[in-house]
Write a structure and sequence with these properties.
The structure holds 2 protein chains of 2 kinds. Chain A has 3 helices and 4 strands, in the order βαββαβα. By secondary structure, chain A is α+β, with helices and mostly antiparallel strands. The longest helix of chain A is centred in the C-terminal third of the chain and has 13 residues, at 70-82. By secondary structure, chain B is an alpha/beta fold. Chain B is 47% helix and 13% strand. In chain B, the strands form 2 sheets. In chain B, strands 1-8-7-3-4-5-6-2 form an 8-stranded mixed β-sheet. An 8-stranded parallel β-sheet of chain B has the order 15-14-13-12-11-10-9-16. In chain B, α14 links the parallel β10 (298-302) and β11. The two termini of chain B are 46 Å apart. The chains are: A alpha+beta, B alpha/beta. The interface between A and B is medium-sized, with 27 and 42 residues.
Amino acid sequence: MLTRVVSIINPLGLHARACARIVNISSRFRSNVSLVVKGRRASARNIVAVMLLTASVGTTVRLEVDGPDEAEAMREIAALFHDGLGERS
Amino acid sequence: MVSFALNGVGVSGGIAIGRAQLVSHATLEVSHYTIPASKVDAEILRFGVAVKEVQKELEGLHKAMTGGDVPGEFGAFLDVHWMILTDPILSEVPKKIILEQRCNAEWALTTQLGVLVEQFEQIEDPYLRERKSDIVQVGERVLKRLMGKPGALPAPVAEEQTILVAHDLSPADVIQFKSHHYGAFLTDVGGATSHTAIVARSLNVPAVVATHNARQLIRDSEMLIVDGDSGVVIINPDRAVLAEYRLKQTELELDRQKLKRLRTKPAETIDGHHVELHANIELPDDLEQTLENGATGVGLFRSEFLFLNREGLPTEDEQFEAYRAVAEGMKGLPVTIRTFDLGADKHKEGLDGLARVTPNPALGLRAVRFCLAEPRLFLTQLRAILRASHYGRIRILVPMLASSSEIEQTLAMIEQAKEGLREQGVPFNSQIEVGGMIEIPAAIIAMDAFVARLDFLSIGTNDLIQYTLAVDRADEAVAHLYNPLHPAIIRLLALAINTANKAKRSIAVCGEMAGEVHLTRLLLGLGLRNFSMHPAHLLTVKQRVLTSEVLATKAIVDRIRRADNPDKIASLVDRLNAL
């Protein structure tokens, strides 16, 4: 299992569309992806759970990726966060 | 037909006149009954089928959109709804409830929706909390299927404009606006960040939300006027009111067309004085509006947003990313970042200096005073700004400077931050311009210290007026004493602008006065050539600049500078605007 800590840099935080992007990318891989925010865990496959993490800008998120393609999955998901969840102008 | 008016929140501007079309939606009456053990499997199946049907409905809408000129938001909203629908928490958990409680599918789904909504209700961030409406809208779509009322919006009736009146609208509903051309939206609930608001703005259709009970009070095909700027809805207007709004509507449309054409036109007075019109922004997201309104720079980027909705302090990297995003987004135009304007009134955890009660926060440890007292925090921000300066034309603006020693200390801190970056080999603009906010009367009276040491100046008129007149605008008992046209304010402004112009230092006004179009000529006449304001005012002010002649204002402006009372000044300002 790989873990990595990233932070939310897009100003609106984990809002609905940002969550959709996370679910979209995570579901492309066979590995299980989890997001942990302040001790609460959500599977990146379930958009409602991710929405309920309610992470605002500046929050740190621990990514946990476990499975056959974990290295690639981690790379892509971490890149998405680094990119402001696709919202950096 | 009785004429009456409703007040809501205008979330998308403009005026629409048309017939009401009521859409019954939401708050569906759901009955509760027990299912015999033998029928439980069938009930679970019925639920599964409804989910599948809604899934197909959403996919169909998505397909119908591709190729069309639909704003990008629509597709994203549909994706979100599709994902919510297929999330087991909505598509599977109700099946378990049916099995365990032997209840009907509608009741099981409503129960589960209630559980989820309650979890969303506990969220503190208002923007994220409102996302519960996405869950509810998806749930209601399934409910309507279950109850045999599959729901597309009815087509608008006649060639007259149709105004949609609903409890709430889902993104999928709003998509049908594209083909149906509704004239406006009116909803009982919602806020400035609701889907209805976002999409209405992207379609440029007036919208008023949070009318509470519009759907109960308005009847089908009643005549409505929707004023999206003031949030007023007039039902069954009489002939005179109707004529007035028709005229207003035409005027607004003409104005809008005219203003839009000014976007790329350089701001220059009739007698050839070039004027810089910059934007005040709070979030990196404000850039879009800034560029749309033709700003030639960001005159004030308030950096306090980095502290919003968070615990602890923003890191250097987070700040760097945010500043860089704006610098790059402005594509070489100047971006003026104001260092933290935090104070005792804006208490933040983790900042010991603020964890005490101060009797008079406006005169206390705030802005640069606070930053100099918390050098670690200040240095982190300065490093982040300097690093970002490598990626665009960034300038540093320091708030609330009062004396030369504060300027010296601040410049020394900036030097220290530069030194650190140099040692680490991190690139930055070593020629970065450093400016000061002029918001304390002392700064103007002894401004030679400022022009000697700083590259540029920016007058924060809101605080300048508060400090000069000793009036707290937030205190209702004295708010009426707050007056930008007090002779003392005019004379301080004149002195500041003159001193800066003589010393060849650029000087801007970034307070509210800069965005008030009836003061544009006064400020031009006082010698101001750089205005920074909320992006929404930029084009209106530009229009006034283009029709002003500085030379012609001279005689009246001289009289304004000598006038000894605000009423006299106000009437002279009126005369300036009548020129």
